[in-house]
Design goal:
four-stranded antiparallel β-sheet, alpha+beta, about 15% helix
Length: about 350
Amino acid sequence: MKRALLLAALVFAGCDNSNGPSAPTPIDQNAQVQRPPGPPIPVVKPRLPLANPPPVAPEPPPSGPAGLTRSKLGDTVEFSWSKVDSLKMSPAETMVSAIKNGGKPDPKGKGAPKEELPEGLHMPEPTPMMKSGTLTIVRVEPESPFTFRVDVKSGKESSSQLYAYAPDIALHKVMYRSDEEAALHDVKAAGKTFKCFETPTRQVAPDADELALSGGLVTESLLDKTRVGAISVSLTRVGNARVKVGTDKVKKLDTFETPLAIAMEQASQLGFVDPEVKAARDAALKEALTTHATGCISNLKPARGVLDAIIAKGKLEALVWNAKPAPKPFDKCLRAKAKALDWPEGDVSIKVTLGQTP
């Protein structure tokens, strides 16, 4: 009994009621609060570089000859050409212009709009002044790069130029595009009959090998006859010529335009003189005229003044001395001395001062 009481006393003595199940548990303020783990953070993988796209295979050439590949050395085509060189006012236009300007011709050569004209009077279309000639295209050596010569003529004017296509120009593509479904019509030109498809301005024979240099073109007509510089062409001859190696500098072509299109551009520039070239030419001509006129000055009274030399179509048309026709002895003397001068083809007026200006 004593032993049981002693054991009970020891148990009560060793227990601390302040730490019982109902006592608060002290919290360490410096302790980190443990939180439940959140959702996993996704791992962003680096983007792999895009694979290089497969190289685009070049368009294979057609199975048969096409474009300029059908042309052979010596192949020749000849075309007649005409272009709108200038516009001329008709007498009716001049009258309309005078009415608009109070009895004076319009200095700019332009008529009044229709709504400003008197009732019943209408402005007629200006008259195109045409320039015409021939152009010839012949394939010459070397075969590579593809080289051809263009000769353009109009009266006494002419020009010749060698051209060569750049190596990266696919020759089978150099031609006029054709509508495969378009109806073909027989067209007679250069003593032959060609199967052509037609547009409002063109006749093209896409299957004619002898027309490779023209891209298949047989004719091209003017759509606007009032546009200065507009040009038309018509086939006159096809054949084969002796190949001549030209001495002109070769112009490189980085274009898919046909040789005929290049020749038409050359024809449109025939007779055009660069302003700097014209100024140098006129200065040389003025100096030569001054020298020759001084040798004839004894035929002038008074022997000082201004001489106007009127030049047109490669000829000395008239000599005007102090605003009057030059004396016949002076005219005859100067023409004899200046006979060897190379007169320009266009309309030119050269003023020469002799002695002191009055």
